[in-house]
Amino acid sequence: MTEIKLFCPATIANLSCGFDVLGLCLDNAGDEMIVRKVTQKGIRITKITGADLPLETEKNVSGVAAVAMLEAYERDFEPITVGFEIEIYKHIKAGSGIGSSAASSAGAVFGINELLGRPYSRKDLVQFAMQGEKLASGNAHADNVAPALLGGFTLVRSYSPLDIIRIDSPEELFATVVHPQIELKTSDARSVLKQTVSLKSAIMQWGNVGGLIAGLYTKDYDLIGRSLHDEIVEPLRSVLIPGFDLIKQTALENGALGSGISGSGPSIFALSRGKETADKIAKAMSEVYENMNLPYEIHVSKINPDGVRIL
C-alpha cells in the first residue's frame, strides 16, 4: 500500500468541566486527507483545499506532527528511506472550536503509521499529534487529538507521563454543535484565563469531572447532564461568543442534558439523549442566530466510536 485516504473527525474538547483533559469524537463532521508514500525522503504537503493554510511543512500542524513521528520512528526502529506527501481537504474551519488543527495532526500521523505497517498503536500516536497542537495554540494539549485518534470519549489522566483513558459512549448520546461564523483563535481564548483558581471552584470542578466519567460508565444520562457544568473557564470565555447565554438557555429548554463551549469556542455544544432531541435543539439554536442575523453552521452527530478511519 502506497496511498491512503482518510476521514479525520471533528472533536469537542473540555466538555464543560474537563479543561484540557476531556474530549469526544464526532461522527459526521470532519476533514479528508490523502497520505502517499514516495521515494523522496521528508514530509511534503502538496495540496490544501477549503482553507488558507501554509503548505510549508514546518508551518503546518500536519507537517509538524508527521516530522515528530518520523523522528521518533528513526530513534525507535530504523532509518527511513522513503518520504510522504499529504493532501488536506478541509471541511472544519480553523478557529471553530471543534478541533480543526487536531483533525489534521491526527490524520497525518495515522496515515503515515498505516503506510509504515502500524509500528505504533493509536494511543502512541497521540504524543506526535500533540506537537501539531503546540504549533497551533502554543500548548501541546491532547483533549482534541486523543478522541480524534481513539474515538469515543477520552480522559487525559496525566500529561507527564502521558496517560489517556478511552471511554465508550452511551448508545443514545448525541451531540449538537453550532458554530457562529466568527473565528476565535485558541491562543486568544487562552489569554483570558486566570492562572490560579479558588479551592472552592476547584472542588466543584473535579466533582463534576468525576460525575461525568461515572455517568458515562453507568450510562446515567441525568448524571451526565448534572456534571456538564464549568465553574472555571466558561465564565471567562463565554463573553467572547455572541449570544452564548441565550444559546445555552435555549438548548436546555429544548431538552439538552447540558451545554457549554466547544473547545476554546466560538462553537457551542449540547449533549442530549436521542437524535430527535438533538435535532430539536439544533432547530432552536439555529433560530437564535437567525434572529441575530449571524451566519452559522450546525452539526448533529452521534459519538464516533472509531476516530480517524480509512475511506
From TrEMBL:
GO MF term (any one): homoserine kinase activity
Family: Belongs to the GHMP kinase family. Homoserine kinase subfamily.
Keyword match Metal-binding: no
Stated role: Catalyzes the ATP-dependent phosphorylation of L-homoserine to L-homoserine phosphate.
Top-level EC class as recorded in UniProt: transferase
Record EC number: 2.7.1.39
Organism of this sequence: Flavobacterium circumlabens
Reaction equations catalysed: L-homoserine + ATP = O-phospho-L-homoserine + ADP + H(+)
GO biological process, one term: threonine biosynthetic process
Subcellular location: Cytoplasm
Ranges where the GHMP kinase N-terminal domain occurs: 68-152
Domain annotation GHMP kinase C-terminal: ranges: 213-291
Pfam families found in the cross-reference section: GHMP_kinases_C, GHMP_kinases_N
Lineage: Bacteria, Pseudomonadati, Bacteroidota, Flavobacteriia, Flavobacteriales
Primary localization: cytoplasm
Protein's name according to its UniProt entry: Homoserine kinase
Keywords: Amino-acid biosynthesis, ATP-binding, Cytoplasm, Kinase, Nucleotide-binding, Threonine biosynthesis, Transferase
SUPFAM superfamilies per the UniProt record, alphabetical: GHMP Kinase, C-terminal domain, Ribosomal protein S5 domain 2-like
Pathway assigned in UniProt: Amino-acid biosynthesis; L-threonine biosynthesis; L-threonine from L-aspartate: step 4/5
GO cellular component: cytoplasm
